[in-house]
Amino acid sequence: MQLEISLTDESHAVIIPGMAYLFKSRTINKKTGKSYRSKKWFGRWKTAEGQWLSRSLSEDKKTAKKMLLKLCTAEEIESIYPSHRKESMVKLIDRFCQGIESSATPDYARMVRYRVNAVVKKIGVTHPDQIEPNKVTLAAAELAPGLRTRNHYTGSMKQFCRWLVDNGHAKRNPVSQLKPAKFEADKRYVRRALTRDEWDRLVNATVNSGRSFRGLTGNDRLMLYIFVLSTGWRAGGIAQLRAGDFGKDGLVTLQARYSKNRREQRKFLPDSVRKTLQGFLQDRPAIDRAWPGTWAEDAAEMLRIDLAAAGIKHKTEEGIIDFHSFRNTSITWLLESGTPIYLVQRHADHASPAQTMRYARPKRDNVDDAIEKTFSHIISLKSTSEIKSPKNDNPAISPIICMKQEKAHGRTCRGDMQ
Prior knowledge:
Helix content: 40-55%
Distance between the termini: 69 Å
Radius of gyration: 34 Å
Largest sheet: 4 strands, antiparallel
């Protein structure tokens, strides 16, 4: 018995040249002359070279069909992509990352390379069609305990697999259906904003500091902190700024290749900050960096030293303070001063107001003061004295529920207490 299978009948099957079919072999008993059909289904398929191959599959017909289709798919990939399958995963990852480096920042490209290499090494694949979504998920879980970092690993693998498909190294993207984990309830740490009192203490401690950090003196670091608080820019971009990028009119330009979104950014500095930085950079050649050295590689440690000198704990119940917290502080202070959200969004160079609000870190006391200031007038003494409580014969029922229409035989309620 032979059953021909049309490979296009299966939604996940690929179309290949030739035909494939299932059959059960027959065995003849020489003594009795009777023939017996095998319990297992066998698969037979034709390769692209015209060769017919057979294999024992399964006793279940549906399972046998799936196994046959997998064999056909593997045979097709082998025939269509013979040269790609010989190319090692190391070379494929290297070519993929070269494309990333041409369109992204060096730090981002380095992190993508590291994550893809780590996952591929963890699951032990040698060619693209061996990548499976469950293996990628398990590998990411072992490499990253936090859900947010785990999403970075799976996101890099999805990006790599899309590149494999687009460049003809794989027929399909095996991880396209992976969804990012919801990490909001699993935050390992939360950044907090500096208060104005803490900022004043940090300024005094830094300007009087006799310690240098990777070539930056106390005054250098103070100018750096003032600049990042005024602009909200990231450490990687600030480290690339040169003295010539600071205009006399207070306009600072960050080149697109050093920006996270790969767009040129321009920021006007407050007049007091502009005059202070002009004095700081006046004797420096235009091609020299404003803050030279490798401080950006460990900016959090640099700030932590100055915070300790100012008597400020970098980690509290509200969150931690690192160099990126200056960005949270800049956004929070603007919002607390009453700046409209669309202007703060423009200042932070965010794509949406929702993204900007994720950086806001209002103090609980400030929130309480704002509520008191806004809603304290809604109930005046006159209106309060005019409020009368309704009669309620049944104290177990809320007076609000009993304020209903009176019917002919007394007061009734539309519904009972739940």
